[in-house]
Amino acid sequence: MKKIQISPSILSADFSQLGNEIKRLEEGGADMIHVDVMDGHFVPNLTIGPPVIKALKKHSSMLFDVHLMISPVHKYIEAYSDAGADIITIHPEATDNLKESILKIKELKKKVGVSLNPETKIEVILDHLEQIDLVLVMSVNPGFGGQKFMPEVLNKIKELKKIQQEKGLSFDIEIDGGINFENSKIAIEAGANILVSGTTIFKSNNGDIKKNIELLKLK
To answer: Catalytic residue at 86?
Structure first.
């Protein structure tokens, strides 16, 4: 079984202290940094762009797990790669040609992630799984923080785990959306090995990041 990894979402960090917040995550045992990029078009919110990622990368040696919620995504892949993204995750709905976008990320020597919204079927990515390093299963509708976890997506994770085992594939299964100390357990049991969490990591237990990361990993 793959090691459980935690990818804290910096959307929940103190934006006036982002460099220091990333240091706190590193010291607290985070495995990578999750960066949500939103364009106000593909999702109804706006967040950060390549210059911010480039600046933050100087503060950390951790992997940057960059989730692009932008459309059309293909033409921006290279900019985020150059900014320092280590994993670039895209949505099938945000590109005219998923295969081409996957190949573009691979050509740039980055890990390929593909994200499935709650209503997106696994069938959309079945033909591409051998080229994918990470499948991000959204357990909320993307675009806003603070939404409630949707337990029905756990069946999607179980199905991905089954396909993974049957085909002998090794992609990571990541889950993002309303992850807390209770539902992290059922997400891990379903087959997720990377948990994205924001509010729980930064705000629970008086902001004790190390303790919160450890608690999320417990089954």
So the answer is: no
Domains identified in the chain and CATH numbers: 5-217 (3.20.20.70)
Question: Sorting pLDDT into bands at 50, 70 and 90, what band is 145?
Answer: low
Q: Does the CA dihedral 120-122-126-129 come out positive or negative?
A: positive
CA 148 to chain centre: 17
Whether the CB-CB separation of 201 and 181 falls below 8 Å is answered with: no
Q: Please indicate whether residue 36 is annotated as part of the active site.
A: yes
- Is-above-0.70 flag for pTM? yes
| DSSP secondary structure code for residue 28 in this structure | T
Predicted local confidence at residue 2, as pLDDT: 86
Catalytic pick among 31, 36, 65, 172: 36
d(CA 19, CA 69): 23
